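Posting this for the archive.
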Amino acid sequence: MSLQAIAEENARCRRCPRLVQWREEVARVKRASFAGEEYWGRPVPGFGDPKARILLLGLAPAAHGANRTGRIFTGDRSGDFMFASLHRTGFANQPTSVHAGDGLKLTGMWIAAAVRCAPPANRPTPGERDNCLPWTAREVHELPDLRLIICLGSFAWDAALRLRATLGHAPPRPRPRFGHGVLALEGDPLPLLGCFHPSQQNTFTGRLTPPMMDAVFTRARAAMPPS
């Protein structure tokens, strides 16, 4: 199945009642500053370069970001911070991601969320993570050049370890722990690289700075196994 067909099927998913109720309520009520816009209000598929060697795995769509625009990390401050870094490090053709038709293109990277629907209080459950896992696995099956997963936060790190198992990779022993800049399973066909999530909680406090995020993306190029 093509990536486009997977995206279309993913956007119709209603498997998690709590998430369906919340994403649709947010899309109906809207934030005052976006009152004139039509919200996406559905699961948000992954997007990027079909020849990607890196999967960038985030947490979940923002209620008034990707849940509004229909593209992950698009239309919110986390995305503003992240795409500026991706542009500086050569993975994106522009430093902004405002809406789905803004001309943004990625090179060598596919971006997806561990949970595809906006969750209440930005806190998805482990069960919702596991319900979404097959969507990421299906996309990865159509991305044969993937060689590395960058995990934005510990939730994405846990999801990536489960994704690896779904793809047939042996469970690592001992189980690697998340950390910013931590490269786990080096030498493995699909290693993990940790990065703090570009949430406002991290970027406004200085826990994650632009040079820190740039360094992760720069290291990702060097960490990938040969094709």
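The chain has one domain: 3-223. The first helix runs from residue 3 to 10.
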